[in-house]
């Protein structure tokens, strides 16, 4: 799925706040939550999401989805990560 297709899908699913996020190489965010639901398509690089005991590694072309208030940690790959994300 390309970014234009993904953006259309997000809009159809009611994600009105759509933006591109870039994170630094080998960076991370400790456990935190967001007050919004997020669905993202990784465009470049890599991200590892840790939600409790569950881990999800995403690379270019992969999609990840987090519910509002879901505690998680984020770890960025050696080239960082860039993703298109919808929030609602």
UniProtKB/TrEMBL annotation:
Pfam family, one: Cupin_2
Signal peptide coordinates: none
All copies of domain Cupin type-2, residue ranges: 27-73
InterPro entries noted in UniProt: Cupin_2, RmlC-like_jellyroll, RmlC_Cupin_sf
UniProt protein name: Cupin domain-containing protein
Source organism of the structure: Noviherbaspirillum pedocola
């Amino acid at each position: 799925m390309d970014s234009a297709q993904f953006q259309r899908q997000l809009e159809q699913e009611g994600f009105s706040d759509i933006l591109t996020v870039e994170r630094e190489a080998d960076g991370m965010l400790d456990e935190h939550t967001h007050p919004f639901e997020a669905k993202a398509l990784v465009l470049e690089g890599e991200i590892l999401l840790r939600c409790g005991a569950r881990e999800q590694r995403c690379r270019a072309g992969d999609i990840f989805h987090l519910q509002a208030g879901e505690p998680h940690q984020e770890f960025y790959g050696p080239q960082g990560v860039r993703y298109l994300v919808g929030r609602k």
